[in-house]
Amino acid sequence: MGLLAKPKQFLWVWFIWLGLFYGAWLWLVAGEGLWPEAVAHWPMALAMAIGSYAAGSTPMGGGTVGFPVLVLLFELPASLGRDFSFAIQAIGMTSASIFILARRQPLAWSILKGAMLGSLVGTPLGIFFIAPHVPELWIKLVFAVVWASFGLLHLYRLSEIAGHSGMTEFNENWDFRLGLWIGLLAGATIASVTGVGIDMVLYTALVLICRADLKIAIPTSVVIMSFTSILGVAVKTLPGQGFQAGVFENWLAAAPVVALGAPLGVFIVARIGRKPTLLVVATLCVGQFIWTLFSERAFLGLTGMLMALIAVGGCLAGFERLRKWGAELVGESSNEYGGSSKLTVAESKSS
User: Fold this and answer.
1) Is the dihedral of CA 267, 164, 109, 186 positive or negative?
2) What is the C-alpha separation between 66 and 82, in angstroms, rounded?
3) Are the C-beta atoms of 61 and 67 separated by less than 8 Å?
4) Global pTM value
5) What is the dihedral angle through the alpha carbons of 285, 288, 294, 297, rounded to the nearest 10 degrees?
6) What is the pLDDT of residues 12-42, one digit of tens each?
7) In this structure, what is the dihedral angle of CA atoms 293, 225, 206, 58, given to the nearest 10 degrees?
8) How far apart are CA 315 and CA 141, in angstroms?
9) Segment 188-229, tens digit of pLDDT
């Protein structure tokens, strides 16, 4: 068949998943009489119709929309936004991940495996020992700064990022170690605090260091966020943790939307291209930063707002350093990392 042969797909697995999920959801709303709770929280379902599309078509989880809607629009605690992000992505991102795997889309497997192992350790450590000590205002600011930085990166580097083809692979063990550190650090410091973000960090490493094609980088980011969200939900259900009040009710309303919305984003963006969606989402990321500074201006003051802007600048400087590092590795990998190769999309699909 050759390298360009279309891989066999297993979409029946995804349909089985949908049947199991919707069966469980119907049991909750009909069998357990929770339909009024779902209807009462319909605004979150509407918001996540947009959020789930972004989750499947960009490297930003559904919490990218769910968090600011709950925290900035509905003025609920930031910790609730974090817990909701974990809970809703455990459905939406998992549905999108199963869809991606069933379609045999190319993934950066070495880095992804390392990131999963790192997240397996880092995310629980962050939930237990870091997140409980982060004030509500700082949760908002961490979210606002990271997402604004990510949005700005795409507003001025999108053409370059979207122009990558295939993926630069270094030594497989080196790729695994890179993913391991990303999963460990991002899981402990970003995902555990905001409920999202590990996907964006992994994606950033893929596009800036490995020069990965968006067709590889974005699906890989979806899978790591699904894994981390399921892990976050599992840890949150342990004694002594638990979800914030209101998470389940909002989840009940939005879950049936994201189970289809996130895979729909995966499907549609493959046909219309990723640049338009990334531009819109990047603009929203910058907008939520401005909104956060405005809504918290009384607490932050001029000094706090300047510090937030400096933090965004620091993140952008870090992104540029990663980009430079990636360029150096491509040129020096034959000496330092045992050689490099350019993995094409077709080759990745066949591997």
Assistant:
1) negative
2) 9
3) no
4) 0.88
5) -80
6) 999 999 999 999 999 999 999 999 999 999 9
7) -60
8) 13
9) 999 999 998 899 999 999 999 999 988 899 899 999 999 999
